[in-house]
UniProtKB/TrEMBL annotation:
One Pfam family matching this protein: TOBE_2
Lineage, highest ranks first: Bacteria, Pseudomonadati, Bacteroidota, Chitinophagia, Chitinophagales
SUPFAM superfamilies: MOP-like, P-loop containing nucleoside triphosphate hydrolases
Source superkingdom: Bacteria
Organism: Chitinophaga oryziterrae
GO cellular component: a single term: ATP-binding cassette (ABC) transporter complex
InterPro entries: AAA+_ATPase, ABC_SmlMolc_Importer, ABC_transporter-like_ATP-bd, ABC_transporter-like_CS, Mo/tungstate-bd_C_term_dom, P-loop_NTPase, Transp-assoc_OB_typ2
Name used for this protein in its record: ATP-binding cassette domain-containing protein
One MF term in the entry's GO annotations: ATP hydrolysis activity
Length: 301
């Protein structure tokens, strides 16, 4: 049985549909990620799921009970669903331990486990004006988790984070399911952030879900160029989307071309190669290839 069921949800904004009969399901402990460009409807859908925005049609069922919108309740939101906005706020001039104590519904032992998972134990005595943006975000996350939600909605959690804090937050989000057994849904405009985490990926474009599947399916078998581009570089050959890493340089190959550009990315090189009729991009660890070289290529299985 599904923990969450969204059926035919619609949303109008200034007379235009920004969500078009959107439906999805999520099982308990299933990790669902929604990807799409800015303005595709991701955040609106997530806020409707959390009871923070009123839908203009359809319904959301959480644990088989309809989620009411803000026009139907005194306080917007659902007690079993926590929503972390990319624009979260923490009260000023308080120590971290004080901010968390106001929200805590758990025993000291259970709360300490959440603080450990969120990597904030060492921050408890600091005031929030002494924290980095990434540290504040993890505290805002812990503040939601100590209210014991059964579903956690994460809206663009990696935006505006440097690489160090992004990597820490990715580890935290992974541990939410593994150590705390909390069901999560995550949205991101950068699809690369979700491939290693999600069980199922939904792709949104213009208010519609246009593809859903495993990370491997949506990456290797995109339904169109929009979806392909969300996950990085691709080549379109004979109406098939082929990722740069699928090519390998060989002595005798099916394709032959001249290297036009060589870019170094640390663990691999990216080469632009001019074939007889088009330019393609490949990735290789071969550091002997130079601009102007002629190379033969095959596709990996």
């Amino acid at each position: 049985m599904s923990l969450l069921q969204v059926s035919g949800v619609r949303k109008l904004q200034q007379g235009a549909l920004i969500l078009k009969d959107t439906s999805l399901t999520q099982k308990k402990f299933q990790k669902v990620a929604i990807a799409g460009e800015t303005g595709s409807g991701k955040s609106t859908l997530m806020k409707i799921i959390g009871g923070l925005v009123q839908a203009d049609g359809g319904e959301v069922l959480f644990e088989n009970v309809r989620v009411k919108g803000p026009e139907e309740v005194l306080l917007p939101g659902h007690p079993g669903i926590a929503y972390l906005s990319q624009h979260f706020e923490l009260r000023n001039h308080y120590r971290v331990e004080e901010l968390l104590a106001y929200s805590n519904k758990l025993s000291e032992e259970d709360a300490d486990k959440i603080y450990e998972v969120c990597r904030i134990t060492q921050l408890m005595k600091r005031k929030n004006d002494q924290l980095s943006g990434g540290e504040k975000q993890r505290i805002a996350l812990a503040k939601l988790l100590i209210t014991s939600p059964r579903l956690l909605l994460l809206d663009e959690p990696f935006s505006n984070l440097d690489m160090i804090h992004k990597d820490i937050l990715k580890s935290v989000i992974y541990d939410l399911g593994e150590k705390l057994e909390i069901t999560c849904m995550l949205i991101s405009h950068d699809a690369q952030d979700i491939l290693s985490w999600a069980d199922e990926v939904l792709i949104m474009q213009d208010g519609e879900i246009i593809q859903r599947g495993s990370p491997q399916q949506v990456y290797n078998e995109p339904v169109n160029e929009y979806t392909a581009a969300l996950f990085g570089r691709y080549n379109l050959i004979n109406n098939a989307f082929i990722r740069p890493e699928r090519f390998k340089i060989v002595e005798k190959g099916e394709l032959k071309g001249k290297v036009d550009k060589v870019l170094y990315f640390g663990s691999y090189y990216e080469l632009d190669i001019m074939l007889s009729d088009k330019m393609i991009t490949i990735r290789t660890q071969d550091n002997h290839v130079k601009k102007g070289d002629t190379v033969n290529l095959n596709l990996r299985n």
